[in-house]
């Protein structure tokens, strides 16, 4: 059978040329990240209000005097710096996806480009959807659960005075977990494309996948059923979408 159409009408590049190109792409990504960091730092108070909004919503719903505190002199600075870095990474992801695509596209055939192009740019979109889903639906419910749990049925209720670093770590890890979980269709479709899975296997093992999904949800989310269900439902939906889309990945 005749070989596929030539990848590109470009001269063959040596290993050194590829490494040089990769270095340039990495430098571009780092420069963009620095610009994004400066931009995010100029809006550090707005970003702080944005990241703490789910807790504020839960506080207002529970009618408590819960506050965020810091116990070390440098803790507030470190937490703010952590927020800015996470925000800069979040802003940089779409540009990094473009740089990745520009780096790998010369090595792809025309058919491969058509296949991979949507997924390169769909990845940050799905990640963003997971973050938004967690931010607006999961985090407020989770914080409300934790706050009200300490008050129910006790003569002397416990009042949450959370450290800002603990709050940032918990919130960003949960946002990232949801973002990564929403990439499930991309992972599964790529596995099908490379022959490591097939559509029939996904359909046959659906019940095992559901058990695994609920297990992952129990690990990633706070220990309340509502948060686990809020993560499990979209993951199951993503799994079903993967089965539908995997037909085109053969």
Explain this structure.
This protein is mostly helical and 250 residues long. The protein has 2 domains: 15-174, no CATH class; 183-250, no CATH class. The protein is 74% helix and 2% strand. The chain contains 9 helices and 2 strands. Strands 1-2 form a two-stranded parallel ribbon. Helix 2 packs across helix 3 and helix 4 (110-149) packs antiparallel against helix 5. The protein is flat. It starts with 14 loop residues before the first helix and ends in a 5-residue tail after the last helix. 22% of the residues are buried. Mean pLDDT is 81; it is low at 1-10.
- Tell me the helix content: over 70%
The profile of the biggest β sheet is: 2 strands, parallel
List low-pLDDT spans.
Answer: 1-10
Oligomer: single chain
Specify the structural class.
Answer: mainly alpha
Into how many domains do the coordinates divide? 2
